[in-house]
């Protein structure tokens, strides 16, 4: 019953908060995220269980006025069934609860396949789910090696017992899973790659824009789907913005062990991630970009990289064409609003976008014109449990969190009573 689902989800939330420190330490140990950020993720993660505990009792159907006197028309919302949940390593707790909270609130059971780099967070959530009274077989976890990941993903997407796939990860992997799921026409939710633009117009408060840029770009060392990947700065304030941004990076960012209280930038997830950042910097510099600050691996170890700022960047460079997923901030100078919007919308993905302006008319225009699922206006951090998370174009299908998130796990059934 919905009330019982609500009670157990809320108890799960309470247990997460009671064990916040241990859960955060697991995240830091698994992916290197600074402990303060990991603690923030656990609070954010638990909030989805609380939110959907409340939404579980608000799955309303409809009574529709019938066209015939002897009929009554009803609409029911029912759980889709078994949901396969495939999650990434960068938010190993929150990406699970955002999906699982909605699924369990709707009345579904779930099979979670966590990223091969971060299985322990998923298993820790499973232990707390047991303590919260979530019945055996309702929350299931399948950890697997990197070598087995593709095979396990294929099984989850093709097995007829699975009714729903929810995936967060790269666009390339999402397309593979969509092909697998097509054979049995499963319900699918996809939160895929981003390439977020961050536009700073001449009317912007530059200090506020720098603070937003720092938060948006370097959280989790640039390893989030909504991290800014391209900075577009209007020529009137370009030099001032770059100068202040460089000073903020130097003053406020500290690379180190995630368990060190001073650390704001932990290691990247693996060697491959570091090599991608290096290749983007090398390509940009070879085409005329200038390294303002950073630009190389950090002395702490092979997976640590210096927070990097590039200027004199053009749209022909790899770092403005691909998602870097690392601590690299490339700055492009532009002249007109139309030019900035055109550059921002040139990507085939559209998850998040940000811009800073104090011109009300411009704010309305640009917010409506940006081809993304989420827009931050004078704000660099936009994720919130109450708000719909998701993208357009090749950034995905469906929405998570918010009042809309539970609909991804519900089927709508029309019932017609006749002969009355």
Automatic annotation (TrEMBL):
One example GO MF annotation: succinate-semialdehyde dehydrogenase (NAD+) activity
SUPFAM superfamilies noted in UniProt: ALDH-like
Catalytic activity: succinate semialdehyde + NAD(+) + H2O = succinate + NADH + 2 H(+)
InterPro entries assigned to the protein according to its UniProt record, in alphabetical order: Ald_DH/histidinol_DH (IPR016161), Ald_DH_C (IPR016163), Ald_DH_CS_CYS (IPR016160), Ald_DH_N (IPR016162), Aldehyde_DH_dom (IPR015590), Aldehyde_DH_Superfamily (IPR050740), Succ_semiAld_DH (IPR010102)
Associated pathway: Amino-acid degradation; 4-aminobutanoate degradation
Keyword Phosphoprotein tagged: yes
Pfam families with a match to the protein in the record: Aldedh
Residues in Aldehyde dehydrogenase domain copies: 2-415
GO cellular component: mitochondrion
Keyword NAD in annotation: yes
PANTHER family for the chain: SUCCINATE-SEMIALDEHYDE DEHYDROGENASE, MITOCHONDRIAL (PTHR43353:SF5)
Described function: Catalyzes one step in the degradation of the inhibitory neurotransmitter gamma-aminobutyric acid (GABA).
Subunit structure, as described in the record: Homotetramer.
Protein name per its UniProtKB record: Succinate-semialdehyde dehydrogenase
Species whose genome carries this gene: Furnarius figulus
Gene designation: Aldh5a1
């Amino acid at each position: 019953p919905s009330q019982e689902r609500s009670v157990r989800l809320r108890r799960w939330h309470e247990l997460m908060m009671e064990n916040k420190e241990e859960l955060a330490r697991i995240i830091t140990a698994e992916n290197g995220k600074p402990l303060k950020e990991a603690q923030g993720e656990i609070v954010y993660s638990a909030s989805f269980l609380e939110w959907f505990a409340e939404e579980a009792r608000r799955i309303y159907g409809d009574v529709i006025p019938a066209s015939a006197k002897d009929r009554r028309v009803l609409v029911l919302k029912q759980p889709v069934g078994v949901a396969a949940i495939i999650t990434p390593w960068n938010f190993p707790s929150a990406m699970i609860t955002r999906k699982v909270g909605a699924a369990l609130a709707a009345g579904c059971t779930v099979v979670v396949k966590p990223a091969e780099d971060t299985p322990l967070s998923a298993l820790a959530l499973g232990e707390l789910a047991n303590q919260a009274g979530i019945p055996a077989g309702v929350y299931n976890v399948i950890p697997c090696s990197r070598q087995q990941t593709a095979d396990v993903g294929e099984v989850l997407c093709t097995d007829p017992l699975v009714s729903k796939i929810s995936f967060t990860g790269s666009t390339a992997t999402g397309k593979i899973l969509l092909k697998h799921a097509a054979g049995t026409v499963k319900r699918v939710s996809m939160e895929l790659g981003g390439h977020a633009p961050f536009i700073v117009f001449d009317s912007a408060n530059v200090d506020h824009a720098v603070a937003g840029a720092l938060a948006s770009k370097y959280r989790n060392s640039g390893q989030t789907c909504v991290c800014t990947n391209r900075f577009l700065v209007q020529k009137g304030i370009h030099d001032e913005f770059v100068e202040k941004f460089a000073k903020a990076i130097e003053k406020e960012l500290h690379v180190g062990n995630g368990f060190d209280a001073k650390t704001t930038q932990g290691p990247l997830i693996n060697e491959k991630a570091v090599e991608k950042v290096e290749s983007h910097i090398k390509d940009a510099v070879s085409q005329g970009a200038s390294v303002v600050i950073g630009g190389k691996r950090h002395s702490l170890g092979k997976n640590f990289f210096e927070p990097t700022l590039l200027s004199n960047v053009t749209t022909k460079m790899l770092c403005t064409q691909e998602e870097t997923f690392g601590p690299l901030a490339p700055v492009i100078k532009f002249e007109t609003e139309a030019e900035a919007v055109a550059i921002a919308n040139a990507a085939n993905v559209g998850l998040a976008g940000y811009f800073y302006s104090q011109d009300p008319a411009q704010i309305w225009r640009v917010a409506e014109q940006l081809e993304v699922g989420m827009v931050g206006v004078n704000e660099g951090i936009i994720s919130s449990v109450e708000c719909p998370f998701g993208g357009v174009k090749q950034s995905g299908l469906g929405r998570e969190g918010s009042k809309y998130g539970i609909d991804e796990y519900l089927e709508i059934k029309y019932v017609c009573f006749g002969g009355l």
